[in-house]
């Protein structure tokens, strides 16, 4: 009893001490609960219900089925929610990793270029931002046309202008113009390339800001020591940019695992199926759960994905702490 | 002062709650109607059709809201669960079974009976989509109809001495395509390809295949709607014939990744001698460019329409379109029904809307109007409706169409492309076996749930 009283008095004392801070923080906490925590709890509750087209009108009062939706997602291979699930997981892993590191890599190279003084630098910086301001829906739709076999600009450039079929012929590869969107591994490249094209300006901007924050003295000292460009990058730029890298890595992975728009739009503006090498987790969940009005399994799948992402974020946090301490 | 504010607040609250009830300050009944983009100016066109009705019923006011097909699915679900729904809604015919099973739509069986409605009033295939098989509850009324016919180039046919009879059945159709290919024609600087079809990246994946399946005696589900029959020998025959046209080079293989708009536009630009499309494309090709149409082109002056070629077991075409339904939550059932009744059963309204959108009327009597009888192309469409078929309006259809059929038949086209023309019967059979298994899982589960929760 005395212990409880002590805890309460401590809490009250802390409140009195930081009262103003708590009052200021209160609206944000309230919004967080209202807009984030409650829908999350509602989602978890939905994942335990049989909420489909027959019971949707009962909404949160739909029949309680416990772990059935989780069982269907994880173990019931004949469940419609599992159609193409494994290939979607495989594609998402490839997609998220390649896009995240691809955007970071290109972003870093361009940021290094723009970090030098030259005429027209500001104009170039503005121009480089162009892909990033194109909405993802538009990117998907445009690249859907660009990848087409005969009329798409990509095959026209590669085969009609650059004549790469002559090179490919020497290598023994088929000299025909390829289909990019017809469900073989090339489809994965066809969804990754536009995403990297659209996404790299963001890390470029962040890394450029990071580069401009590195004192120039370090590089001058390295010059005196006779370090070459690569060494300067590896021993000065890279370690000092690690906090920026780490944040971009986290944002990139989360954003790309949850990617939807570009892939959804690229195959007949949302009408077609992306194929075994084009379907991602989000397009898969959207089709198998929400387009089937099976909100219960959709919620279960989303919750499982959220837990997986929490594990990824936890690993990242340990890495980030290491970076900070370093 | 505080007291005044409190009173003002209560008064405002009462006013806002009162207007939510669906009556405006002027005492008019306010109805909200959700439609899809059926034409270039969807909202204005519906308003124009409704004008005579509103003049006769000044107590009714209608707010028309245009959704897009992509988001409509989600919005209808939200409306069904939240109760914050419009009064009237346009439903695609393939959605009626699924949305009807949600118990969100008003039963209008009695209203339809009162106007003497039924299969005698509406196009047969459209009427079959108004209620869930096995129930007597009509939840929607046919409004507009979409069916498919063959569009062909008369100049190409003339040059090669061909007529519509040469595309009357599967055998002659294939021979005609081969003849066009062999002729290796170039007209108006365009090399003529025999046939344009869509493959996987399109919303018509199933609609394009269905006529070939039906015409060979195949189907998607059994007559009792309990199991899938998609792997039947008849279905295999129909699909193999259609795929065979690609394998034989009568269809340029790049078509298989293009959508309906591209094929339609390529036909109008002179690329294809033949393709299949709906009545809206007829409207597009006969509307002058200054009114937003594609008329005036070389092809628009040199085309005609014909029915689908007859298969070994008959001639069938796909029938789609949209019905009108009333949400159960409406506070103005009578007024909402009046609007639905006017739009679906008034001959003038049906023809006017058909003229605006290109879609066909659902009302049978509209086809006796000179707009249809005097135009040879529209006559082909109205004749095609007699041999048209709609998908069954069963609760499981929506799920099967999106998750299984679009996906798996898309995968079928992927395999056709990857096989480089060697796509075999075994490959098709394996694909259809997978589709059948997946369809059966959905059919069984949906039937179980429908029995349990169906109202």
TrEMBL record, chain A:
Q: Show where the ABC transmembrane type-1 domain sits.
A: 89-316
Signal peptide (from-to): none
Mode of membrane association: Multi-pass membrane protein
A Pfam family annotated for this UniProt entry: BPD_transp_1
Q: Which SUPFAM superfamilies does the protein's record reference?
A: MetI-like
Q: Which residues cross the membrane?
A: 20-41, 93-114, 126-146, 152-173, 244-267, 295-317
Q: Which domain of life is it from?
A: Bacteria
Tell where it localizes. Cell membrane
Q: Name one GO biological process term.
A: transmembrane transport
Q: Kindly state one GO CC term assigned in the UniProt record.
A: plasma membrane
Q: Does the keyword Membrane apply?
A: yes
Keywords of this protein's UniProt record, alphabetized? Cell membrane, Membrane, Sugar transport, Transmembrane, Transmembrane helix, Transport
Q: Which family does it belong to?
A: Belongs to the binding-protein-dependent transport system permease family.
Name listed for the protein in its UniProt record: Multiple sugar transport system permease protein
Query: What is the native source organism of this protein?
Result: Termititenax aidoneus
Question: Which gene is the coding source of this polypeptide chain?
Answer: ycjO
């Amino acid at each position: 009893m005395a212990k409880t009283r002590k805890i309460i008095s401590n809490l009250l004392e802390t409140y009195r001490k930081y009262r103003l801070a708590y009052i200021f923080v209160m609206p944000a906490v309230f919004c967080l609960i209202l807009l984030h925590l409650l829908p999350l709890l509602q989602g978890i509750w939905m994942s335990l219900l049989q909420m489909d087209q027959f019971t949707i009108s009962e909404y949160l009062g739909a029949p309680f089925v416990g772990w059935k939706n989780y069982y269907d997602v994880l173990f019931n291979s004949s469940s419609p929610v599992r159609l193409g699930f494994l290939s979607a997981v495989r594609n998402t892993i490839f997609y998220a990793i390649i896009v995240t590191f691809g955007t970071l890599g290109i972003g870093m190279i361009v940021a290094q270029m723009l970090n030098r003084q030259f005429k027209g630098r500001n104009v170039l910086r503005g121009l480089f931002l162009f892909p990033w301001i194109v909405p993802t829906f538009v990117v998907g739709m445009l690249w859907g046309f660009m990848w087409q076999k005969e009329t798409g600009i990509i095959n026209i450039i590669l085969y009609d202008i650059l004549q790469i079929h002559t090179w490919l012929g020497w290598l023994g590869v088929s000299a025909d113009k390829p289909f990019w969107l017809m469900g073989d591994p090339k489809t994965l490249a066809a969804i990754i390339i536009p995403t990297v094209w659209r996404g790299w300006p963001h890390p470029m901007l962040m890394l450029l800001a990071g580069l401009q924050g590195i004192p120039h003295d370090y590089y001058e000292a390295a010059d005196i020591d006779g370090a070459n460009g690569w060494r300067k990058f590896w021993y000065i730029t890279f370690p000092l940019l690690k906090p920026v890298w780490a944040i971009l890595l986290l944002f990139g992975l989360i954003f790309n695992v949850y990617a939807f728009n570009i892939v959804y739009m690229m195959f007949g503006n949302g009408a077609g199926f992306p194929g075994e090498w084009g379907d991602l987790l989000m397009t898969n969940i959207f089709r198998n759960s929400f387009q089937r009005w099976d909100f219960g399994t959709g919620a279960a799948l989303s919750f499982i994905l959220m837990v997986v992402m929490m594990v990824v974020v936890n690993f990242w946090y340990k890495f980030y702490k290491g970076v900070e301490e370093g | 002062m505080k007291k005044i504010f409190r009173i003002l607040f209560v008064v405002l609250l009462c006013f806002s709650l009162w207007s939510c009830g669906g009556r405006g300050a002027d005492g008019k009944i306010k109805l909200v109607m959700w439609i899809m983009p059926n034409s270039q100016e969807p909202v204005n066109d519906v308003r124009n059709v409704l004008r005579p009705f509103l003049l006769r019923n000044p107590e009714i006011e209608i707010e028309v809201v245009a959704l897009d097909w992509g988001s409509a699915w989600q919005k209808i679900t939200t409306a069904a669960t939240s109760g914050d729904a419009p009064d009237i809604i346009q439903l695609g015919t393939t959605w009626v079974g699924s949305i009807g099973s949600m118990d969100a739509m008003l039963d209008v069986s009695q209203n339809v009976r009162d106007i003497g409605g039924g299969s005698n009033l509406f196009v047969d295939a459209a009427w079959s989509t108004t209620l869930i098989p096995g129930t007597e509850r009509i939840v929607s009324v046919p409004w507009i109809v979409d069916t498919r016919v063959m569009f062909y180039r008369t100049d190409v046919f003339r040059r090669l001495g061909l007529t519509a009879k040469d595309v009357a059945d599967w055998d002659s159709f294939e021979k005609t395509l081969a003849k066009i290919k062999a002729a290796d024609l170039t007209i108006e600087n365009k090399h003529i390809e025999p046939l344009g079809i869509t493959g996987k990246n399109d919303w018509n994946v199933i609609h394009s295949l269905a006529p070939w399946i039906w015409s060979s005696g195949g189907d998607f589900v059994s007559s009792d709607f309990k199991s899938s029959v998609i792997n039947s020998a008849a279905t295999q025959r129909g699909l193999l014939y259609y795929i065979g046209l690609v394998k034989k080079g009568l269809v340029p293989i790049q078509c298989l990744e293009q959508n309906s708009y591209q094929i339609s536009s390529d036909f109008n630009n002179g690329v294809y001698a033949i393709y299949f499309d709906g009545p809206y494309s007829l409207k597009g090709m006969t509307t002058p460019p200054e009114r937003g149409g594609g008329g005036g082109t070389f092809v628009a002056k040199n085309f005609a329409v014909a029915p689908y070629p007859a298969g070994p077991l008959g001639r069938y075409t796909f029938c789609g379109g949209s019905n009108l339904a009333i949400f159960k939550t409406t506070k103005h059932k009578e007024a909402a029904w009046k609007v639905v009744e006017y739009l679906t059963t008034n001959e003038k309204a049906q023809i006017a809307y058909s003229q605006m959108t290109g879609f066909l009327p659902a009302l049978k009597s509209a086809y006796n109007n000179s707009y249809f009888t005097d135009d040879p192309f529209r006559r082909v469409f109205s004749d095609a409706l007699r041999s048209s078929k709609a998908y069954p309006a069963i609760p499981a259809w929506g799920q099967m169409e999106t998750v299984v059929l679009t996906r798996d038949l898309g995968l079928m086209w992927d395999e056709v492309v990857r096989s480089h023309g060697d796509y075999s019967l075994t490959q098709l059979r394996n694909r259809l076996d997978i589709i059948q298994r997946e369809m059966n899982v959905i059919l069984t589960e949906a039937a179980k749930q429908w029995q349990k929760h169906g109202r």
